[in-house]
Amino acid sequence: MAAGTSTFLFDIAHLLAGGVLVLSLMLLVQDRLTAVINVFALQAVVLALSVGWQSLVQGAPHLLVTALITLLAKALIIPTALHRIVRKLDVHREIERVIGGGPTMLAGLGLVALSILVVHPVVETADPVAREDFAFALAVVLLGLLMMITRRNAVSQVVGFMSLENGLILAATGAKGMPLVVEVSVAFSVLIAFIVFGVFVFRIRERFDTVDVNVLERFRGEQREHL
């Protein structure tokens, strides 16, 4: 492969992986559930494009299956189901945060910087595409964890979990992919977890008339006081 062509392929791969990271940061600043779900769907689209491009860069056609699974499951099926859950539960209001949007974004930028500082020295001898993608992927994972920690709404927390899983897919495909059977099993595991989550949230709503985990925590405390 010519050096110019190789550089172009690497640049596009880095651009797409960076797009996944930017959308993870955008998830942190959204204050409504519908916006959170829409940004997550867009992140899944960019992730699918990134995986598909890695298929071209690595000459690994099986990654196209991963890209298709990601596109169908995370960009279409899951967001559509989440929007239906939001409408059913009537939770269109703003999402309550543990800390404000400004400090959350600063913490997110700090995690991105930490990911770069941690990954680059460790994988200096790795393939250039893999090295950059590892840094982006670790940042996406950490930002997903941050979203789960700083949001009080159960729906937004599950979006944070699935965004975290997007980071794991990005890391796996950047490291010359993973076996197709693993990719398929991961996709089905996510779908099963989503189904369980949907049932769980509906049960919470029926019992407590809310999906705010802070309210549920206060209720549990009150129950302990009565015992």
Radius of gyration: 19 Å
Helix count from the secondary structure assignment: 8
Distance between the termini: 71 Å
Low-confidence runs of at least 5 consecutive residues: none
Residue share in β-strands: under 5%
The helical percent reads: over 70%
Q: What is the average of the pLDDT values? A: 76
Q: Would you tell me the structural class of the helices and strands? A: mainly alpha
Describe the overall structure.
The protein is an all-alpha fold and 227 residues long. The protein has one domain (3-226). It is 83% helix and 0% strand. The protein contains 8 helices and no strands. The chain is globular and about 50 Å long. It starts with a helix and ends with a helix.
Would you spell out the secondary-structure blueprint of this structure?
Blueprint: H1 3-29, H2 33-58, H3 63-89, H4 101-122, H5 128-150, H6 154-174, H7 180-208, H8 213-226
Keywords summarizing the entry:
single chain, 227 residues, mainly alpha, globular
Brief overview, please?
The protein is mainly alpha-helical and 227 residues long. The chain contains eight helices and no strands.
